[in-house]
Fold this protein.
Amino acid sequence: MKRSRLQTARPRTALRCIFSSYNGRVKTADVIIAGGGIIGLSAALELAQKGFRVRVMERGRVMSEASWAAAGMLAAEDPTHPAELAQLATLSIHLYPEYLNTIERLSGRLVPLRTRATLQTSGNDGGFHHHDTATCFAISAQEAQRRIPGLASRSHSYLWLEEVSLDPRDLCAALPLAAAAAGVVLQENTEVLAIDGQDGWVEIRTESGTDSAGAFINCCGAWAATVQNLSLERPAAAVEPWKGQMMMVRLKPPLDLEYALRTPEVYLVPRGGGQIAIGATVERVGFDRRVEPSAVAWLRALAAELWPPIASAEVVESWTGLRPGTKDGLPLIGGAGQPHCWVATGHFRNGILLAPATGLIVRQLLEGNPPEVSLAAFNPAR
Ligand SMILES: Cc1cc2nc3c(=O)[nH]c(=O)nc-3n(C[C@H](O)[C@H](O)[C@H](O)COP(=O)(O)OP(=O)(O)OC[C@H]3O[C@@H](n4cnc5c(N)ncnc54)[C@H](O)[C@@H]3O)c2cc1C
């Protein structure tokens, strides 16, 4: 992706807007965000850069849940995604170069792209519903094997996507530093228990007391529905955890894989130096985060079936993460049923991809401006 440089000046416009009826209460921030994953921190960074005073309250450590566990594919053109995601995904992938530039500039850490193309194969049930574009097009099995030496011969359809990936652990190191450098206060080990939206401000209750802010955003990922007083109980909008088990293998040098590979059941995402992340299960088992050896072995077998060199690779790590899922598989972005309360969560399998666009849209909503894309499909009250 082409990287463009961001301007460094910080606009000073935003603070007036929604907080004028604040009644003189002492507020600790203009905006308090619950949840320090990629969604919360991306919204915080976006808001802070526009002059908002932002505090992120994180129950544990920032960037240590789903955002840490992810594979890091920015699969904006995956034809198996719900059609309603297309606009948001397209906006986000266009924002990505600037997003990474900002993070790198503010944090002093690099977040390199690890791959620059993906081969996606269909399942046994036929081909893809897609139209060829300049960045996503069908190729033959022979061409797929030419591009990916060692690829097993299968009779499926093949798509070549000029899709990039990054290592979320690079983001875990850089994004909190960038947010802090932009002025965001990161308050770890602080669980938001309940919120109470009032006329002009929001009260945010934690174990250590009550804080006040001009606005509140629930970015608690798979735990979003546990914050009391938010209207997240409606069937379509209920957020719940979807467990994903992953593993990392290391290939025997000089063997390496240049591109990501993806089937409906498994994906392989190279992370450099012969290391390949393999994922992932999609399980509805509550907040259980145990790694099961049988699931890891299953993933490895599927990966080796697709690309046989995996069979002799060394297993270096396995882990789980809890994706924030909704009944219809779409995120919740919008008002959260109380004055000055918002929600941005439910990004399920695409939160790394969708973070820059979500951050931008959250900022536009708080400023009272029309969002860049239609949010009808993401309405938390649907
Ligand atoms: C195995 C796996 C692979 C994935 N691969 C990809 C991929 O390749 N590409 C992609 O785009 N996406 C991928 N995803 C999805 C992506 O990781 C998620 O959609 C994204 O990380 C969600 O970000 P989040 O900030 O909403 O949630 P999280 O990162 O889970 O952050 C939520 C935070 O809220 C905190 N919190 C919870 N409750 C409270 C509370 N009451 N008060 C304060 N803080 C609280 C939590 O501690 C947590 O830190 C993957 C996910 C998994 C699990």
Summary: The chain has two domains: 27-110+168-237+327-378, 118-162+240-325. The domain at 118-162+240-325 is CATH 3.30.9.10 (D-Amino Acid Oxidase; Chain A, domain 2). Residues 113 and 325 are 26 Å apart (CA to CA).
